Amino acid sequence: xxxxxxxxxxVCTGAQWLLQALEEEGCEVMFGYPGGAxxxxxxxxxxxxxxxxxxxxxxxxxxxxxxxARASGKVGVCLATSGxxxxxxxTGIANAFLDSVPMVAITGxxxxxxxxxxxxxxxxxxxxSLPVVKHSYIVRRAExxxxxxxxxxxxxxxxxxxxxxxxxxxxxxxxxAQARAxxxxxxxxxxxxxxxxxxxxxxxxxxxxPLLYVGGGVGMANAEGPLxxxxxxxxxxxxxxxxxxxxxxxxxxxxxxxLGMHGNPAANHAVQExxxxxxxxxxxxxxxxxxxxxxxxxxRVLHMDIDAAEIGKLRKADVGxxxxxxxxxxxxxxxxxxxxxxxxxxxxxxxxxxxxxxxxEGVFAPALLKQLSxxxxxxxIVASDVGQHQMWVAxxxxxxxxxxxxxxxxxxxxxxxxxxxxxxxxxxxxxxxVCVSGDGSIMMNIQELATLKRYGIPxxxxxxxxxxxxxxxxxxxxxFAERYSEVDLSDNPDFAVLARAFGxxxxxxxxxDQVPAAIERLLEEDGPLFCxxxxxxxxxxxxxxxxxxxNGQMMGCAA
Amino acid sequence: xxxxxxxxxxxxxGALLRLLGTIERRGFALLNLAADKPDEESYVVRLRxxxxxDPLVLCRQLERLVEVRLVKVVxxxxxxxxxxGFQATWL
Lengths: 559, 91
Prior knowledge:
The complex is a heterodimer. By secondary structure, chain A is of the alpha/beta class. In chain A, 36% of the residues lie in helices and 16% in strands. The longest helix of chain A is centred in the N-terminal third of the chain and has 15 residues, at 58-72. The radius of gyration of chain B is 15 Å and the shape is globular.
């Protein structure tokens, strides 16, 4: 039903208009937590078709909405009350902002007459969230609620996606009014694009060592197909960022792997040697580039992005193309004479192939992740937390498409994994969603095990437990003279017992010979399942570009 | 290095806060600001900013704000002539 046709005659409360607009935007699931100022919305929710998932902390709501959006391509929706409910959402909103995830976050607010008086549970979430939203609203009239929601969705999903906050005072949610029609802003400036494309093609035609640098923008633009076609037709080799993982065909012969701090040496060396860097939906993030002024030192740059503000922000582009990657990438296709370069890429890839023959009886996490992802195949979606395990997933998990890998790339939010997996599973009930977490990260949102149990959400959790904050410990070992400071977590709870206390079946793996049975159980068993894996606390993530160094100066790899 | 901007934007709640916050977070200091409200629906803002980063990148970062309609880097207005007998003193 298109409710906008009835706007001129119907009178509803602000809360009812909010839900009607959400329904018309196709919102089927929202994640939230009730409280005083948002009670009118929860009251209206009783009559709504939208499925509300009650999380156990508002941060879980925002991160679940984020995971839902990443897995589905739709706008994720979260809802919280004013004050602490709103501030608890902020980390998840920031996470969505840094990774360009479409989200609408709705917060209750105190009544307009007491706003600005330090009323109970009043915070200026509009002001607090300004740096981490694409846009935001305080709705001050019931007649504006419907249009605001519709406009917020349009903004969240258009261009470079991002989160939009709607702060809804309680009296506005309770007031009745007719709704005004939304006012959508349109317009894409395509001036100069055809000329830029010609220059881009000319750059590529003259390059001897061209290389694709693929970012998260490719997946978000649904441009995986065009990218893969371009690679097949031209033979162009590619490297990718953490968020670009899955956009490049994992089986492509010139998929050189992830670049950057924990990237594949083949990828990093190829970047350093290329003479044309074709940047597709990436932003020269410092984790990808290492020391920026030494990154791709001999390369000209062709930068393509939906967001013009990214072009030239950190590295000057010889040609910058603002627009849709799905249209731009095919336009680059042409015969290339780059056989010597492809031979060099072949050599790099062969020389730096991953090894999984770790000695000892303990569990080698990279091998477990590789085996699990290969056994699960294309039906798997992995939601990774943040830390060493996140990098192991990026290095060793076979990711067949971008939406099958959920990771907090920009903000690096410990605690992302479990709620994101919940969101992804609800978005994709046909998928087998695996949350890979660490013993530091899992405790950041452990309460969401209760959400798994309540709704019977069949997320499989693989907890890689090294009894410490592994990534921080690794840096203290390597760059702070082994002065270990506040990284010991050896007093962790027994995670299997903890999971069972939430009603989640759980088991523990301590030896490599237990891994095959664990993988089988994870892939075969219905319902949620918690696999607690004990790993060596001394294990490090290799290779590594030391901070402040060039990507050509990696530690822990063949020279 | 200082640079002058002419910006036109919607008159909506938080628009100026969002604009000025973006400018400062992106590494520019505000040296001078003049804002006018020519009608009920718009602001016109003239800013002088100081910063080491590329002002054209800032232009694009401001253009993507939803309320912003137009951003232009403009030449600084001519200095008014000093009054007779005035001698500038720099502290």
